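Please decode residue identities from the backbone states below.
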């Protein structure tokens, strides 16, 4: 019997009651616009959006150019810094060579100076003695 109930026709719902028709209300008269005026408005909006989009793209290009210029300046400064560091190292090497003990001894010998013998070295005490 269950199979028979399953295939039985469902009851049909009653149709919804119709709404009463309202009396027609008078709408205020819309101002009459000329076709020319509507056409101008239809043309102006896309031109405005395209101009705005072009200005934004111009700004993006200007920012990219500024970033590129900054990058070039940083690269040049890095190269200059590397050159100056190499020059400083070369100067430090020259200074070290100029102040080395063998070079100073050779210059002293050319001037006729001789090293003092190790036994003849004495020290002077400069601390004040209290009586």
């Amino acid at each position: 019997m269950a199979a028979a109930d399953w295939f039985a026709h469902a009851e049909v719902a009653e149709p919804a009651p119709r709404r009463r028709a309202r009396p027609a209300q008078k709408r205020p008269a819309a101002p009459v616009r000329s076709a020319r005026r509507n056409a101008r408005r239809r043309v102006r909006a896309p031109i405005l959006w395209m101009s705005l989009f072009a200005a934004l793209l111009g700004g993006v290009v200007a920012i990219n150019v500024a970033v590129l210029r900054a990058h070039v300046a940083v690269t040049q400064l890095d190269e200059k810094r590397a050159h100056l560091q190499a020059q400083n190292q070369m100067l430090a090497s020259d200074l070290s060579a100029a102040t080395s003990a063998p070079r100073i001894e050779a210059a002293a010998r050319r001037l006729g100076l001789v090293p003092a013998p190790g036994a003849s070295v004495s020290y002077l005490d400069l601390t004040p003695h209290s009586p």
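Observation: The mean pLDDT is 82.
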